[in-house]
Structures are given as C-alpha cells and as structure tokens.
C-alpha cells in the first residue's frame, strides 16, 4: 500500500494499493484479475471530487479505449469523464454504485465501477504507475500541482 | 428543431438575439464534449469564514463552504489573489458563511476588495443581508457584482435559514445595494422550502422593484448528510415554469441558470427547459446542452467567470458585428 500524505489533517492522507495500476489524469484504478480488469476511483481522486452526485457509464458490451472515457461523474467539485486505463470491452457494470455513486465516497476500493475484458493489456499497463515507488513519485507531482493551484488545504 | 416555449423564446430573441452564454468558473473542474474550463485556476471561490457558518441552513449545513479557498483575514485574501493573478487567474467570488443576523462578515474586507479591483481582478461577492455601511463599502470598493439570495416567504427564512428576519429585510438589502449604486445580481433558489414552491413569485416581485443587472435562478440541491438529504428537489418542469415566469417578468434583464441544480438526467432536462424558456446563460451546462443550443440556432459564448457578471451589453444580439470581426465568432470567447 502506498501511503500518501499532504499534511496533518486526517482527510489529507490517502491510501493507494501498490498492486493496482492508475490512470493518472482521472485517478481511475485498475486491478488485474486474471484476464479481466476491474476499475474504480482512487482515494485521492475521490477526495478531490468531493461528494459524488451522479455517475454514468457506457453499457456492458461497449468497446472502450485507453485514455478515453468509459463514463462520467458529477460531484461538488468535478464534472467530467472517467478515462479508462486500458482498452477493451466492458463486461459488467456495478449497477448499485452507478445508481448510488455516494457509495464510492464510502469505500472507493470496495465499490468498483466496471469490469473489463482488456484487448492489449501488457502494452496498456506499461506506462501506468504501479508499485509503491512509482505511485509515490506520481502522487508527489500531483500534490505539487494541487498545491500550486491552492487546492490543498491540509495544514 | 426541438420545441421551444414560444412566448418566452420570442421575448429572448427579440431582446437579446441568438446569443447563449455558458459558464464554467473554477469552482469545479468541468469537462464535457461541448465545453471545458482550463486546468489553471481562473475564477476562484473564497470564503472569508472558512467552513464556519452560524445559520447552518437545512440544505447545506456549511458543506458548500468546504470547497472554497479560506481567507480568514484581508491579508490572506490578498495573498490568495496575488497567487491567482501570478498564475493567470482573473477573478474571485468572495463568499462565506453567515453570521447569526444573516450577514456575511465582509465589512473588514472592504479595503482589500478595493485593492483587488486595483489589481485588475474581477470581484463578485455573496453578501447575505446588508446594512447601509456594507452597501456603501462595497460601492466604494468598486466590486463588480453583489449577489444575494432573495427569499419571498418568511417561513422559509425561519425554517430553512434559521434566521430571525423577514422578506422585508431581504428587500431592504436589495434597496440599499441599489441606492448605493452597487451592481446587483439577486439569486432565487427554486424549491428552497424543502422542495416546495413557496416564495418564488414573491421573490421575483420584490426583485422587479429594484435595479438589478441580472437575475440568477438556481434549484434546491440538498447536500449529503444534511437534514434535507433525501428531500426531492423541484422537478425540471416545475423549475421551467419559474423560468418562463421570470422571462416574462424580466424581458430585458439577463436571466441565468446558476451553478446549483440536481445532477444527471434532471440537469439535462432543466437545462433544456432553460434554453427553451429563453434564459440568457447556463452555468456548467449538462452534457449535450451546448450541442442542443446549436440545434436551436443559438450562438454559444463561453466564459470561465461567474455567470452573474453577464452584462446587458454582452447579452444583446451582436451577431452581425461578431461575424464581421472574426469571420466566424467573437474574438474573445466564442468557441
């Protein structure tokens, strides 16, 4: 588990599993499960977005592309897409979560969003943060970016 | 062509031409197929009370303040503004929690607000109830716009805002702002009384008696973990009736659909009705609305400022001039 901390406030500490992969722009996690990939939103992304009010995804069976939207979300601080870490086909959607996206605020790793059959997994994963060191390096830059925009109020 | 609400649509086209304004200030990251805001802060919200609010309204409980920058002193406000400007930002929405009397404690910030204007920044303020001193102070500071929620039912003021005040106190604030020459954009929260339509018509009537630069309509959006969580907001169709009423009542005043409204399909339907009722602008339009505006023959103008900063000059039809000047659209904002 990569532990990321930006200050003393409890809400400013995030856990990102180091055996997951991450789509950096939208903080979508990807967990490889055999020949399937499960996806959701990472802890920092959920913090940055705030309370999720709405979620939509493409339907099961739809082909999706790496770095392109597989759905979108709306929250107190974010209206925009969720981009996929990998290309492939949506096999399953977590309908409970899509119907009540606040579940992601409660447990963002337990409440996955889509299950995907990847089409070029090895290639797609090759440039995604994975492992404690890579995740911490990526998140250090991410925190610096947020700090430069006055978006981190953690002390 | 999608259906329009004929009378209101015609009023808007006669008085404002084909322009429709879309807004996405930096209160949110916003990205749809038709419009996205920049990743750098451009127009940011600041709370002069941090997360503190004495009213603790039933639908909010101070939660909206949490996403704002905190300026606990005028000096902190100026520091935030300097960093914003250094990064290319252009303006601030100065807000805050309310004191128990319904005012936002802005008086100590008046001098700093004037300095923000001297820096060349756009300044919008959420005032809450104002007294003579604050109205004069805001005028002296030269703020670009004062925004105040106007409530038209005493029971809403009491039961939702927990405020010992009356509709007359809200109208007095409007009067003081007007008398002092402060450009004012009143807001009306549709469905504020636990989702019911209660004081909206009265609020519009009150506003009609005062000089305002624009009228901003928003919908009740109960926050999670508040007493109103689970309260049904007004339906899009109910809101649409208020849009139409407002358009007829304020034929020459820009009317905007502001930031707050329920998400998802509700939002798309609400935004569609706003277009059809001839509103002048929409903040954070739902996915597909920019495209729908095009299908209706409207010409989108995009901005990352607060929608209340619209001016009548901006909103009036200038299509011919713009087309001539830029070959296709306005050189500043039409995308």
Structure, described:
The complex is a heterodimer of chains A (155) and B (335). Helices cover 25% and strands 35% of the residues of chain A. Chain A is built from 5 helices and 11 strands, in the order βββββαβββββααβαα. In chain A, β1 and β2 form a beta hairpin. The two termini of chain A are 23 Å apart. The model of chain A has no long low-confidence stretch (mean pLDDT 95). Helices cover 35% and strands 16% of the residues of chain B. Chain B is built from 12 helices and 12 strands. Chain B starts with 5 loop residues before the first helix and ends in a 9-residue tail after the last helix. The interface between A and B is medium-sized, with 19 and 28 residues.
Poorly predicted runs of 5 or more residues of chain B: 317-335
Helix share bin of chain A: 25-40%
- SS-based structural class of chain A? alpha+beta
Q: Regions of chain A with pLDDT < 50 over 5+ consecutive residues?
A: none
Whole-Å distance between the termini of chain A?
23 Å
| Second CATH tier, the architecture of chain B | Alpha-Beta Barrel
Q: What's this model, at a glance?
A:
The complex is a heterodimer of chains A (155) and B (335). Chain A is of the alpha+beta class and 155 residues long.
Which features does this protein show?
heterodimer, A: 155 residues, alpha+beta, OB fold (Dihydrolipoamide Acetyltransferase, E2P), three-stranded antiparallel sheet, 5 helices, 11 strands, 25% helix, B: 335 residues, alpha/beta, TIM Barrel, eleven-stranded parallel sheet, 35% helix, globular
């Amino acid at each position: 588990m990569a532990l990321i901390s930006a200050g003393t406030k409890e809400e400013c500490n995030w856990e990102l599993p180091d055996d997951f992969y991450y789509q950096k722009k939208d903080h979508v996690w990807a967990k490889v499960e055999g020949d399937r990939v499960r996806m959701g939103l990472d802890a920092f992304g959920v913090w940055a977005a705030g309370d999720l009010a709405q979620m939509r995804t493409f339907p099961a069976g739809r082909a999706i592309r790496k770095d392109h939207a597989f759905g979108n979300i709306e929250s107190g601080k974010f209206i925009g897409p969720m981009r996929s870490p990998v290309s492939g086909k949506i096999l399953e959607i977590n309908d409970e979560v899509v119907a009540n996206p606040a579940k992601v605020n409660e447990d963002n790793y337990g409440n996955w969003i889509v299950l995907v059959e990847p089409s070029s997994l090895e290639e797609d994963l090759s440039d995604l943060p994975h492992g404690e060191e890579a995740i911490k390096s990526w998140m250090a830059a991410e925190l610096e970016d947020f700090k430069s925009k006055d978006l981190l109020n953690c002390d | 062509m999608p259906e329009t609400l004929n009378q209101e649509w015609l009023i808007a086209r006669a008085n404002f031409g084909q322009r429709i304004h879309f807004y996405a200030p930096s209160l949110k990251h916003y990205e749809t197929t038709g419009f996205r805001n920049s990743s750098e802060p451009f127009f940011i919200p600041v709370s002069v009370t941090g997360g503190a609010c004495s009213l603790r309204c039933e639908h909010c409980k101070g939660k909206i303040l949490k996403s704002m920058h905190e300026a606990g002193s005028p000096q902190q406000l100026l520091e935030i503004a300097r960093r914003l400007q250094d990064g290319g930002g252009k303006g601030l929405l100065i807000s805050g929690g309310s004191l128990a009397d319904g005012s936002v404690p802005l008086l100590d910030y008046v001098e700093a607000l004037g300095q923000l204007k001297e820096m060349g920044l756009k300044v919008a303020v959420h005032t809450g109830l104002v007294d003579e001193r604050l109205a004069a102070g805001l005028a002296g500071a030269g703020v670009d716009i004062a925004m105040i929620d106007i409530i038209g039912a005493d029971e809403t003021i009491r039961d939702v805002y927990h405020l010992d005040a009356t509709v007359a106190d809200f109208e007095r604030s409007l009067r003081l702002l007007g008398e002092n020459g402060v450009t004012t954009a009143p807001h009306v929260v549709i469905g504020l009384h636990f989702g019911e339509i209660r004081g909206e018509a009265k609020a519009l009537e009150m506003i009609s008696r005062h000089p305002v630069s624009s009228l901003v309509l928003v919908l009740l959006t109960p926050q999670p973990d508040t007493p109103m969580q689970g309260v049904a907001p007004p339906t899009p169709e109910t809101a649409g009736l208020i849009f139409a009423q407002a358009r007829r009542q304020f034929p020459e005043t820009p009317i905007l659909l502001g930031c707050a409204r329920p998400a998802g399909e509700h939002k798309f339907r609400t935004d569609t009705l706003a277009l059809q009722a001839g509103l002048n602008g929409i903040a954070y339009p739902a996915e597909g609305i920019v495209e729908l505006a095009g299908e209706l023959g409207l010409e989108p103008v995009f901005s990352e400022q607060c929608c209340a900063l619209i001016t009548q000059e901006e909103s009036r039809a200038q299509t011919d001039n713009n087309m001539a000047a830029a070959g296709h659209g306005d050189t500043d904002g039409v995308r």
